[in-house]
Amino acid sequence: MNLERLNEIEKPLLHIVKHDVVPALGCTEPISLALESATAAKYLGKTPERIEVKVSPNLMKNGLGVAVPGTGMVGLPIAAAMKVLSNTILIELLIISALLHQKSMQHIDRQVIKIMVSKPCP
Questions:
Q1: 5 domain residue, yes or no
Q2: What is the dihedral of CA 30, 35, 37, 43, to 10 degrees?
Q3: Is residue 54 one of the residues assigned to a domain?
Protein backbone atom coordinates (compact mmCIF):
# COMPACT_ATOMS: atom_id res chain seq x y z
CA MET A 1 0.00 0.00 0.00
CA ASN A 2 1.42 3.38 -0.94
CA LEU A 3 1.60 6.36 1.41
CA GLU A 4 -1.08 8.30 -0.48
CA ARG A 5 -3.59 5.46 -0.13
CA LEU A 6 -2.72 5.06 3.55
CA ASN A 7 -3.45 8.76 4.15
CA GLU A 8 -6.84 8.38 2.40
CA ILE A 9 -7.76 5.60 4.82
CA GLU A 10 -6.24 7.19 7.91
CA LYS A 11 -7.98 10.57 7.64
CA PRO A 12 -11.60 9.33 8.00
CA LEU A 13 -10.60 6.91 10.74
CA LEU A 14 -8.97 9.66 12.77
CA HIS A 15 -12.07 11.81 12.26
CA ILE A 16 -14.25 9.04 13.69
CA VAL A 17 -11.99 8.56 16.69
CA LYS A 18 -11.82 12.29 17.44
CA HIS A 19 -15.56 12.94 17.05
CA ASP A 20 -17.39 9.73 17.89
CA VAL A 21 -15.40 8.09 20.66
CA VAL A 22 -16.57 9.24 24.10
CA PRO A 23 -15.24 8.50 27.58
CA ALA A 24 -16.72 5.46 29.30
CA LEU A 25 -16.50 4.27 32.87
CA GLY A 26 -16.56 0.55 33.48
CA CYS A 27 -16.33 -2.63 31.47
CA THR A 28 -18.59 -3.83 28.71
CA GLU A 29 -20.61 -6.54 30.45
CA PRO A 30 -21.66 -4.67 33.62
CA ILE A 31 -22.24 -1.48 31.63
CA SER A 32 -24.47 -3.28 29.12
CA LEU A 33 -26.59 -4.61 31.97
CA ALA A 34 -26.59 -1.21 33.69
CA LEU A 35 -27.83 0.49 30.53
CA GLU A 36 -30.51 -2.16 30.03
CA SER A 37 -31.65 -1.76 33.64
CA ALA A 38 -31.78 2.03 33.34
CA THR A 39 -33.87 1.80 30.19
CA ALA A 40 -36.31 -0.62 31.83
CA ALA A 41 -36.64 1.64 34.89
CA LYS A 42 -37.29 4.66 32.66
CA TYR A 43 -40.20 2.96 30.92
CA LEU A 44 -41.52 1.58 34.20
CA GLY A 45 -41.65 5.13 35.53
CA LYS A 46 -40.51 4.25 39.05
CA THR A 47 -37.86 2.31 40.91
CA PRO A 48 -38.66 -1.38 40.47
CA GLU A 49 -39.27 -3.55 43.52
CA ARG A 50 -37.15 -6.32 42.05
CA ILE A 51 -34.89 -6.88 39.07
CA GLU A 52 -34.82 -10.14 37.12
CA VAL A 53 -32.49 -10.32 34.15
CA LYS A 54 -31.64 -13.10 31.72
CA VAL A 55 -28.24 -12.81 30.10
CA SER A 56 -26.29 -14.93 27.66
CA PRO A 57 -23.90 -17.51 29.11
CA ASN A 58 -21.02 -15.49 27.71
CA LEU A 59 -22.16 -12.23 29.32
CA MET A 60 -22.62 -14.04 32.63
CA LYS A 61 -19.16 -15.60 32.44
CA ASN A 62 -17.46 -12.35 31.54
CA GLY A 63 -19.49 -10.12 33.86
CA LEU A 64 -19.23 -12.04 37.11
CA GLY A 65 -15.64 -11.13 37.84
CA VAL A 66 -15.53 -7.58 36.49
CA ALA A 67 -15.10 -4.74 38.99
CA VAL A 68 -17.75 -2.02 38.91
CA PRO A 69 -16.02 1.37 39.29
CA GLY A 70 -16.61 3.24 42.52
CA THR A 71 -18.12 0.29 44.37
CA GLY A 72 -15.27 -1.99 45.34
CA MET A 73 -17.49 -4.82 44.12
CA VAL A 74 -17.56 -7.17 41.17
CA GLY A 75 -20.40 -8.60 39.16
CA LEU A 76 -23.61 -7.89 37.38
CA PRO A 77 -26.03 -7.37 40.31
CA ILE A 78 -24.32 -4.21 41.56
CA ALA A 79 -24.26 -2.77 38.04
CA ALA A 80 -27.98 -3.43 37.57
CA ALA A 81 -28.89 -2.02 40.98
CA MET A 82 -26.86 1.14 40.63
CA LYS A 83 -28.32 2.02 37.28
CA VAL A 84 -31.94 1.28 38.16
CA LEU A 85 -31.65 3.45 41.24
CA SER A 86 -30.06 6.36 39.42
CA ASN A 87 -33.11 7.10 37.23
CA THR A 88 -30.74 8.36 34.54
CA ILE A 89 -30.42 6.52 31.26
CA LEU A 90 -27.18 7.87 29.97
CA ILE A 91 -24.80 10.68 30.74
CA GLU A 92 -22.54 10.03 27.80
CA LEU A 93 -21.30 6.56 28.76
CA LEU A 94 -20.42 7.46 32.34
CA ILE A 95 -23.41 5.59 33.71
CA ILE A 96 -22.11 4.17 36.97
CA SER A 97 -21.74 6.51 39.92
CA ALA A 98 -20.25 5.84 43.34
CA LEU A 99 -22.97 8.04 44.86
CA LEU A 100 -25.50 5.24 44.47
CA HIS A 101 -23.38 2.58 46.13
CA GLN A 102 -25.21 2.60 49.49
CA LYS A 103 -28.71 2.35 48.00
CA SER A 104 -27.56 -0.36 45.62
CA MET A 105 -26.14 -2.40 48.47
CA GLN A 106 -29.54 -2.31 50.17
CA HIS A 107 -31.13 -3.80 47.03
CA ILE A 108 -28.48 -6.51 46.90
CA ASP A 109 -28.78 -7.23 50.64
CA ARG A 110 -32.56 -7.63 50.25
CA GLN A 111 -31.90 -10.09 47.42
CA VAL A 112 -34.29 -8.40 44.99
CA ILE A 113 -31.84 -8.71 42.10
CA LYS A 114 -31.75 -11.99 40.21
CA ILE A 115 -29.39 -12.59 37.29
CA MET A 116 -30.12 -15.77 35.31
CA VAL A 117 -28.52 -17.39 32.29
CA SER A 118 -30.72 -17.65 29.22
CA LYS A 119 -30.49 -20.57 26.86
CA PRO A 120 -28.19 -19.84 23.93
CA CYS A 121 -29.84 -19.22 20.58
CA PRO A 122 -29.74 -22.27 18.28
A1: no
A2: 180
A3: yes
Q: Is 6 a domain residue? A: no
Residue 58's alpha-carbon distances to 51, 119, 120, 121, in angstroms, are 20, 11, 9, 12
Spatial distance between the Cα atoms of 34 and 117, rounded to a whole number of angstroms: 16
pTM passes above 0.85: no
Rounded distance between C-alpha atoms, residue 69 and residue 22, angstroms: 17
Could you tell me if residue 52 is inside a domain? yes
Domain that holds residue 97: 25-117
Number of domains in the chain: 1
- 55 - beta bridge partners? 117
Beta bridge pairs of residue 52: 114
Sequential pLDDT tens for the chain (122 residues):
677 877 888 888 888 888 887 666 567 788 787 778 778 877 888 777 788 888 888 888 888 888 776 677 787 887 777 766 665 544 444 555 544 555 555 556 556 677 778 876 65
